[in-house]
From TrEMBL:
A Pfam family assignment: FixP_N
Transmembrane parts of this sequence: 40-63, 126-145
PANTHER family registered for this protein in UniProt: CBB3-TYPE CYTOCHROME C OXIDASE SUBUNIT FIXP (PTHR33751)
Keywords: Heme, Iron, Membrane, Metal-binding, Transmembrane, Transmembrane helix
Residue ranges occupied by any Cytochrome c domain in the UniProt entry: 189-268
Species: Roseivirga thermotolerans
Protein name, as recorded: Cytochrome c domain-containing protein
Keyword Heme: yes
């Protein structure tokens, strides 16, 4: 089997696989009654993938032809009747006969490099027409009939759904305190919950051991905004203006904020190595 014939069969397999991949994705997405912008993005990526594969195949095919011309010799096997795929490939590209090459030559010449006045392959023009049809469909779906949301609208819908889910989960919570009546919890499970959140989020500024980094040391008796459970809870809930301490009220329910505040106070007196020096006013709890 010749190199060209082997190559052509391989390119055929790759092309069919790419088209099957695009068709499978398009079929799966078409099962939804309303197209989303994500669906259109998948279809677009599929088209780009197919175009890229076809361009790569054409480039490889041209290189193989140049290889043949350089050798200037053909084996007997290469002179046999071309395969069905070779005929189909030639039809898709509408190749001009070599005998007409002189008629296609342009009149300019750069260092011996000449240019042929070849037309674009039919498959390339076909894909270009497909993109035009696709753009019209996209315009109608998203901007004329508005049957699917745009990115901004999808974002708002996602936020609304998340808030509704959060409200539904918090509806079953029993909250019998507020920021002024909150008390320290000593329940191991609740302290572990507070520790988990602290190590995931608060350790960025305060270190995992609470010794302080960009934020102050939380293991001594000196506090910038008060050291009682209500003070710590308010800082977690409302944040601190003009600092990196943000408000967590919109992301944590009251129980989780109480758990985090209780865990912070449990760090008192641990004296971790490398802790920052005292910062703020001394706070002594009332007995």
């Amino acid at each position: 089997m010749s190199i060209i014939t082997h190559f052509k069969r391989k390119t055929a397999v790759l092309l069919v696989a790419g088209l099957m991949l695009l068709g499978t994705k398009t079929y799966a997405q078409s099962s939804n009654s309303a197209l989303s912008q994500e669906t259109m993005l998948y279809i677009t990526l599929g088209l780009v993938f197919v175009v890229s594969i076809l361009v790569l195949l054409v480039a490889i095919y041209v290189l193989q032809l140049l290889k043949i011309f350089i050798k200037k010799e053909m084996t007997e096997e290469q002179k046999t009747q071309p395969s069905w795929w070779a005929k189909l490939w030639a039809k898709w590209n509408a190749f001009q006969p070599m005998e007409e090459e002189e008629e296609l030559l342009l009149d300019h010449d750069y260092d011996g490099i000449k240019e042929l006045d070849n037309h674009l392959p039919p498959w390339w023009k076909g894909l270009f027409y497909v993109t035009i049809v696709y753009s019209v469909i996209y315009l109608l779906v998203f901007h004329v009939f508005k049957t699917a949301p745009l990115q901004d609208e999808e974002y708002e819908l996602e936020i609304a759904a998340a808030e509704a889910l959060k409200a539904n989960k918090e509806a079953d919570l029993v909250i019998d305190f507020d920021e002024n009546t909150v008390t320290v919890t000593d329940d191991p499970a609740e302290l572990a919950d507070g520790q988990k959140f602290f190590e995931q989020q608060c350790s960025i500024c305060h270190k995992a051991d609470g010794g302080g980094l960009a934020g102050p040391n939380l293991t001594d008796k000196y506090w910038r905004n008060g050291g009682s459970i209500t003070d710590v809870y308010k800082v977690i809930k409302n944040g601190v203006p003009n600092t990196a301490m943000i408000s967590w009220e919109g992301q944590l329910n009251p129980l989780r904020m109480r758990n985090v505040a209780s865990y912070v106070l449990s760090l008192q007196g641990t004296n971790p190595p490398g802790a920052l020096p005292p910062d703020g006013e001394l706070y002594e709890p009332e007995n």
